[in-house]
Every structure is written in structure tokens, then in C-alpha cells.
Amino acid sequence: MDKLITIYHGSKQIIENPTFGEGKKHNDFGLGFYCTESNDLAKEWAVSSLQDGFSNRYSLNTEYLKILKLNSPEYTILNWMAILVENRLFALNTPVARRAKQYLIENFGINVNAFDLIIGYRADDSYFDYAEAFLNNGITVEQLSRAMQLGKLGEQIVLKSKFAFSKIKFEGFEIAEKDMYYVLRKSRDDEANQMYLNILEEETDGLYIQDIIRGGITNDDSRIPRNISE
């Protein structure tokens, strides 16, 4: 990663001064400022079916920042899942799902607040369904990993610390037109929905979360997919 990068934040408003400590605490990686290196993806996140939005552009100096790169081979997809279940609100419909949440946090959890910056996939729209299905023993860890790889999700870059916020500088904005970018966003979501339905129809002998719990499987097991980026 270059020391100086350009990142974008999709929003309904122009944000010249991102503020540490503000935002929604139940986002993927907890409280933070969520951005992407893709201007187009930021514009998709910014719009709704009813109104335009804004892609806010920033420069970020990453020198001296402690960075967690979840899509590197050092981590598995279950590290990503553990962070997700600790922060997002899942429907824990079964005893298996409730045990799964605790098992993932205890065996695959990472203290995200120990980092200044986090890079990893966003559980956006329908892709959240994949994570929830895995947690409820509906799909295997291999199917979950494949969905993330094929989903063209793009990576999100999340500022977590006050130090990281001191390194960001507002550079301007562009209008995100709903007539263009909501269509692209919906198309991505529809594709994810169809892929989800196809995966549910598959027969597989892979590892379900119940198998992982019963087998006491941990992060060093070769059967757990690593590096969820393509």
C-alpha cells in the first residue's frame, strides 16, 4: 500500500471534517469512518432509490498507522466472520447460531480497536445474508468463502483511531446520481440474491459451523479458507 492514498466516503451529505467517535456502532467493524478506494462504489453506497448522494474524496497518509488487512493470507474468512458477529446484529434463530457466535469470537476474534485502520470486505446488502446463513448452519465455510470471492464486493477502509482521523484530509466531492448508481447498486444486490439461492440448492460435504464447533477447529486448520480476496 502506498503511504498516501485517496479514499472515498459515500453519504447523503458532504462531510468535510470526519469526526472521531461519531457514527453507528453496529457497522461491520464497529464504530469508525467507512471508506473505499473506489469512487464508483462510494457513489453506490451514497444513493437511495429516492435521492442523489455524494462521494466525499479524501487523502489519507497511512505512514505510521497500524493496519489490519483482513484479506491477507495471515487471516481466514472466520476472522472476518468473528469481527462481524461481534459488531453487527444477527438473527440468532437457533441454539447452534448462539453457540456459533460465542465460538467464533473466542477462537477467531481480533481486537479491532488495537488498530488505526482496517481493510476488509463489507457485508453489504445481500452479502449479509451469506454470513447469517453460515452462522445458522445453512451454508458451509467453503460456500461462504466462495461467495465473498465471487461477489465483486470491493474492500472497505475503516478509520478506527483518533490518530487515523488526524491523518485524513478532505479534497472535495462529486454528486452521485441516483438514476445511475442506484441501478448499479440494485444490480449488484440482485446478482448476490441469485447466487445465494443457487448456493442453497447445492449439495456439499464441506464444513458447517456445527462441524467446526464439534471438531474444536481453530484458525490454524488448513480446511479454513484463507485470504478471501481473489
Short description:
This protein has about 230 residues and is α+β, with helices and mostly antiparallel strands.
Task: Give me the secondary-structure topology.
Elements: E1 4-11, E2 33-36, H1 39-46, E3 53-61, E4 67-69, H2 77-87, H3 95-108, E5 117-121, H4 127-135, H5 141-150, E6 155-159, H6 162-165, E7 168-176, H7 178-201, H8 209-214
Parallel strand pairs: 4-5
Antiparallel strand pairs: 1-3, 2-6, 3-7, 5-6
Helix pairs in contact: 1-7, 2-3, 4-5
Report on this model:
It is a single chain. The protein has 230 residues and is an alpha+beta fold. It has helices at 39-46, 77-87, 95-108, 127-135, 141-150, 162-165, 178-201, 209-214, and strands spanning 4-11, 33-36, 53-61, 67-69, 117-121, 155-159, 168-176.
Key structural traits:
230 residues, alpha+beta, four-stranded mixed beta sheet, three-stranded antiparallel beta sheet, 8 helices
Please state roughly what percent of the residues sit in beta strands, choosing from under 5%, 5-15%, 15-25%, 25-35%, 35-45% or over 45%. 15-25%
Which descriptor suits the 3D outline?
globular
Order of helices and strands: EEHEEHHEHHEHEHH
> Biggest sheet: strands side by side, in what order?
2-6-5-4
